[in-house]
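Database export, one record per block. Field names are fixed; values are copied verbatim from the stored entry.
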Amino acid sequence: MDAPASGRRKFRIARPVLAFVLFSLAVSPAFFLMQQVVKAQSEADAQSSSSSSLAAGSSNRDSTNQGADKNSPEMATRDVTPTFKVNVKLVLVRVVVRDAKGQAVGNLREEDFQVFDNKKPQVISQFSVEQPGTRAAMELKRTEAIPGNEPVEQRKAPAAPERFTAYVFDDVHLKFEDLTYAREAAERHLASLQATDRSAIFSTSGQTVLDFTDDHAKLHDTLLKLRPRPVTGFNTCPNVSYYMADLIENKNDMQALQAATLDALHCAFNDDQRMINAAQSMAEGAARRGITEGEAESRLALGVLKDVVRRISILPGQRRIVVISPGFQTPQLEYEYNDIIERALHSEIIIGALDARGLYVPGPAGDISKQPSGNPLVAGQETLYDINGASSDADVLASLADGTGGSFFHNNNDLNEGFKRVAGAPEYSYVLGFAPQNLKLDGSFHTLKVTLKNPLKLTLQGHRGYYAPKHLADPSEEAKREIEDALFSQDEVHGLPVELRTQFFKSSDDGAKLSVLARVDVKRIHFRKEEGRNRNELTVVSALFDRNGNYLKGEEKVLQMRLKDETLENKLKSGVTLKASFDVKPGSYLVRLVVRDAEGQLISAENG
């Protein structure tokens, strides 16, 4: 049966202007769930204030009355309403290694890699090799039916999402023929995806939106709805492109103004030199319109990209955005696209770009889609502007890809290969982890570089860096951020001896009970000795995501341990097990378990 459709919303937008305003609502269903969780926290805080006061009072008495401490319970748990950013104690870098033929290589070992943080070598403390679908197979072994209850039928491994890819079609700038070829190539590419892939389709006009899914029929239908949707009109006399308008308005290029003026004189006044001043006024007006309209389209495209980054950043797994576009210019919008790059880096999102024009070669008469000026005096100059403008169009795509560790596919008509390079799931990838040494709390960007000790004509692709924290957070806030980051990742971390098990049974025809069991080998964790007791505190967070990666609900428990020596040594050989329960409808879900201890400040994160 299908998973709950909680939080899903559909919008039908009639106009591009409204699309820009409403787009973030259409693509961000998980944010509504998160806001509800945050809202519930204040209510839970009020309800637990009395118990918190009792706990604080108990702590004070423990420090002053050893006799009372001897009689206090050795273990106590309390439920906390979960409110789920990165303390870079552990930086994880995902790397794909390819050979000369572009095939992913999967036989490398930890000692083959070197990691540099701001050109300083780092010690690799975590290493794993991953393949698509391996997690789902591993997680199936951890799931069992509760004895004595009717089990939920389980015929195959659930397709738990591992990779989320958002395909952003720039229908504002794409021409019909380029969009048609790109759409057909995307259709073939999406048909070959793994069961653990989830895909979404967005458009820069905002008029075509499909949230993350593995339903190929929905993906197919959405692709068919794509068509060019330019926001602005077309100027035919004089023919002033956004590139020329920028030269005239922002760079005061008199040669460009003269070309536009002669174009206006020819198309509007039949080359009557007496009308040269009127022709120049027309050229200046066309340049102003070109700046306004070109910037409006570029802002619209960048705004949608920013919303997609925000949407995909909260999904639990590998996250990638693919921009399908002919490119567009951003002469006064450097801050906007650099902000997108920074946001993507913060959330470990890779942006790939595909230039849908293929091999772009303007003819001697310029861009054939534009009305020719007909004035031989400026035809050559305008052709040069077309060529330079086409090159400038690709710059923003190259910057987005290069700045986030993605690929930029351009000057090639094989769009099938293009989608494979910028969005295809590699057969192998490596996850390298390291703890930065002497990290300064200055919020600065740290460049990351991963190399091989013996390159052997291999190429590496991965994230380009991360941001250091700006200040030392309050310990409780720091712990919350660590847990939240781990929760909305899908990388497994094994800092603590934790074993995850899930159990389920059918409670009714349309309902089921899912239990998440976390067993902790407490004999292998660090304790602080105080007043004859062994003290530590474990925060255990269990969260449930639907089969498309949307956050549904979570439970947080805190286990306070004040163990006697005898208990720790002789009575806890099997460890301590904590349980969280969820009422769900039959379907496929992703379970995420995060455990953090207060004394060692170590963390474990498991998938189920």
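Remark 1: Residues 276-312 form the longest helix (37 residues).
Remark 2: Residues 1-68, 82-88, 145-157, 364-368 have pLDDT under 50 and may be disordered.
End of record.
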